[in-house]
Amino acid sequence: MYRFMKRKSPPPPDINFNKLPSDPAKRKSILSYHLNQRDEVRREYLIRGPCQPRGHKFKQIVIGKVLRRFNPKWFDLYGDWLEYSVEKEKAFCLYCYLFRDQAGNQGGSDSFLSTGFCSWNKADRLDQHVGLDVNSFHNNAKRKCEDLMRQGLSFRGHDESEESTNKGNFLELLKYTAGQNEVVKKVVLKNAPKNNQMTSPPIQKDIVHCFSEEVTRSIIEEMDNDVFGLLVDESADASNKEQMTVVFRFVDKYGVVKERFIGVIHVKETSSLSLKSAIDSLFAKYGLSLKKLRGQGYDGASNMKGEFNGLRSLILKEIAKKHVEVGEFFDMISVLLNVVGASCTRKDKIREIHRQKVEEKISNGEIKTGTRLNQELSLQRPGNTRWGSHYKTLLRLEELFSSIVIVLEYIQDEGTDTTKRQQAYGILKYFHTFDFVFYLELMLLVMGLTDSLSKALQRKDQDILNVISLVKTTKCQLQKVRDDGWDAFMAEVSSFSEKNNTAMLKMEEEFVDSRRPRKKSGITNLHHYKVDCFYTVLDMQLQEFNDRFDEVNSELLICMSSLSPIDSFCQFDKSMLVRLTEFYPDEFSFVERRSLDHQLEIYLDNVKNDERFTDLKCFGDLARVMVETRKHLSHPLVYRLLKLSLILPVATATVERCFSAMMC
After folding, report:
1. 52-70: b or e for each residue (b if 16 or more CB lie within 10 Å)?
2. What is residue 308's predicted lDDT score, i.e. its pLDDT?
3. What is the pLDDT of residue 383?
4. Distances (CA, A) of 106 to 50, 99, 469
5. What is the secondary structure of 498-517 as a DSSP string?
6. Strand order in the sheet with 228-236
7. Local confidence band at 315 (pLDDT 50, 70, 90 cut-offs)
8. Of 640, 612, 617, whose CA–CA distance to 628 is shortest?
C-alpha cells in the first residue's frame, strides 16, 4: 500500500471554502481546481445549494419588443438546480457546472453552463435542459451529485435490504462497481458463487478494520522512526460517549510537514491519567517510542489539572465557568437557538421579516445595494468544535435582533407548544434587560479581538511567525481595551439599547443584584459593570493568554522565528538558534551545539546565494527546498532544528476538524 501513498507531487494549495464565490458567474471552472480538491469543492457547493437571490430585483430586457425578466417562481419549480447570477443577470445550472468536464451541448447545456440562459420568453427551455431521457447530461450530472453526497454517509447503511434506496457506502459502491464491470458483476452480490456474498455486517467491519490497520501502518512507515509531534483532543460523539482523537505531526522524507489522523479512542473519563493510559496503549500497539515524541498539543491549558476539554475554553468555557452572568448569557442563547432554530418555519419567518426590513430600508435610501450586499441571513447554530461559529452566531443575533423579537412574540402569543411559549416569554424578558445588551456587546468585543488569532491557529499550514505576532497584538489590544475602552464600549451598548428600545441603567445608582434584590449591594452600577464585569472578563482573557503563551513558550517561538526564510532570511539570529538547541538537550549534545555555532554562518551564506531559496514564504517551504536541493545533508544540524520547529503543535485545529466530521 505504501507505493500508492508516496508523494509524487507537491500538495495542492489550501482552499478557503468560506470564500468560494456564490454567484455562478464569478466561479472558476471546476477543472481549474486541483484534481484531488474537485470533489471537496463540489461537495461544498452542494451543501450550500443553488444561488437563488429571491429578494433580488431581476433585470428586465427587451425580447421581441416586450420587456421580459426572470420569473422567481422558477426557483420553486426547479429549486434543486436552477441558479441566478446577479453579476450577469442570467440563469445557470448547478449540477451541470459541478460536472461540466463531461458536458456536451444538449438540451441547452452550454447556455446553462458558461454563457448563461436569458431567453425569458422560452420557459420550455428549462424542461429541455433537464431532458426527457434519464441519461441526459443534466440527469447524469444530478446522479453524480447524489452519489458524491452519499460518500459522506456511513460505511454501513441503516437499511441494507433490497428495497432500500441507500444501503450505505460499501454496498452502494460495490453495486456501482458491478454495474461498470461485467467481470466483477459475475462474482459479487446475487451472482456470488454459492451465495458467498461477503457482505454481512461482521465482514464489513473486518474490511474496515483491515483498511484502518493498513493505513495506520503506512503512516508509521512514512514517519520512518523519526521525531514527531502528538496532537490530542476529546469530544462526545453522537451517542454522547467520550472519544479521544489522536493526530501525529511530522516531517516526511521530502521535507513536507504532515498531520496524519491515527484514530479515535474511547475513554471512560477525561482525566490526565486516563489520557496517558490511552496514549501508552496506542504507542505500544504500533511499536512507537515516547523518546521520539518532541511536541505535544492538548486542547486547553487545564488538561494537566484533570481535564482537556474544548477549544472554546479560550473564551466560553473558562469565562462562562468563572463568571455567572456570562454563563447565564450563553445559557439563554442556547435556549434561543432551541426555540427559534429547531423549526424551519420559524427560521424562514426570520428570513422573511429581515428581507422585508431590508427592502424597506433600500426604498428609503437608508442602505445601499450592490453585488454581495444585503444577502439572505439566518440565525446560525454554533458548532461545538468550531471556534469562529460562536462569534458568527452573536453577530447574526445582533443583526437580526428585531426580526427575532417579532418571531419570539409570535411564539409566545400563538405557539401551540406550552414549553416553547414559556421559553419564548423568558427569552423576551431577558432580551429587554440591560444585562443582555451588556454581555452581548462584551462577548462580541472579546471574540472580535481574538478572531484573527483563532483563524490563524485553525490554518492547516501553521505559520509560527504569524502566530507570535498575532498573540502579541491581541494581548496588546485586550490590554488597551481594558485600560481605555470603557467609554467606547458603553457607547456601543447605549446605541444598541436606543435602537432596539431595551433597558438602560443609570450608572451612578446603587446596583441591585437580581438574585438577592432585597439585600443592599453597597456598590454602584458603574462599579459592578465596569470592575466586576468588564475588567474581570478582560482580565480572565489576558490570564488565559499568559497561561497558554508563557515566557518559556514565547521564547521558544521567538527563537524558532530566527529560522524564517522570509525576505532573504532577514530575521536570522545565530545566538537565538544556539539558544534554541538548549530547549532540546536530548537532540543536541555539547559537541553538536558547538559545531552548530560554527556552521550557522556557512549555512546562511550558502542559502542566501542560492536562487532556489528566494521568495520562500514559510518554514515548510524552507524544509521542502532544503530536501530538493539536498542541503539537508550538507547542513544536518540546521535541518534537525528546522524539523523540530515544524512539528511543534501550535494548535489542535486538525483534531477539531476530525470531530467536526465525526459529530455530523
Report:
1. bbebeeeeeeeeeeeebeb
2. 32
3. 59
4. 21, 14, 55
5. HHHT-----TTSBP--TTST
6. 257-266, 242-251, 228-236, 293-298
7. very low
8. 612
Cβ atoms of residues 282 and 246 within 8 Å: yes
Please say if the pLDDT value at position 370 is more than 80: no
Q: How far is CA 167 from the centre of its chain?
A: 29
Q: Are 428 and 616 in contact (CB under 8 A)?
A: no
Amino acid at 323: H
| CA atoms of 166 and 458, how far apart (whole Å) | 35
pLDDT of residue 364: 73
Write out pLDDT tens, residues 397-437: 888 888 888 888 888 888 778 888 898 899 999 998 999 99
Return the exposure string of 420-449: e unless at least 16 CB atoms fall within 10 Å of the residue's CB, then b. bbebbbbbeebbeeebbbbbbbbbbbbbeb
Q: Is the pTM of this model over 0.85?
A: no
Q: What is the pLDDT of residue 237?
A: 63
Quick check: 191 and 258 in contact, CB under 8 A?
Answer: no
Q: Burial-class residue 544 by CB neighbours within 10 Å (0-12, 13-18, 19+).
A: buried
- Cα–Cα distance between 184 and 378 in angstroms, integer? 48
CA–CA gap between residue 419 and residue 626 (Å, rounded): 65
Written as one string, the DSSP assignment of 226-243 is --EEEEEEEEE-TT--EE
Long-range contacts of 112-116 (CB under 8 A, 24+ apart): 115/90, 116/24, 116/25, 116/85, 116/88, 116/90, 116/91, 116/92
Compare 313 and 644 and report the one with higher pLDDT: 644
Q: What does the block give as the cell for 363?
A: 426604498
Q: What is the CA radius of gyration of the chain?
A: 29
Please give the single-letter amino acid code of residue 7: R
* Grid cell locating 144: 453524480
Residues 6 or more apart whose CB falls under 8 angstroms from that of 484 comprise none
* Percent residues over pLDDT 90 in the chain: 16
> Contact 581/641 with Cβ under 8 angstroms?
yes
Q: What CA–CA distance (Å, rounded) separates 129 from 117?
A: 10
Place of cell 452542494: 46
CA distance 250 to 260: 8
Please classify residue 126 by burial: count the beta carbons closer than 10 Å to its beta carbon, then call 0-12 exposed, 13-18 middle and 19+ buried: buried
Q: How confident is the model at residue 475 (pLDDT cuts 50, 70, 90)?
A: confident
Task: Read off the C-alpha cell for 389.
Answer: 461559529
Give the residue extent of every domain in the chain. Answer: 17-149, 152-199, 204-305, 312-548, 551-647
Quick: pLDDT tens for 171-184. 877 887 888 888 88
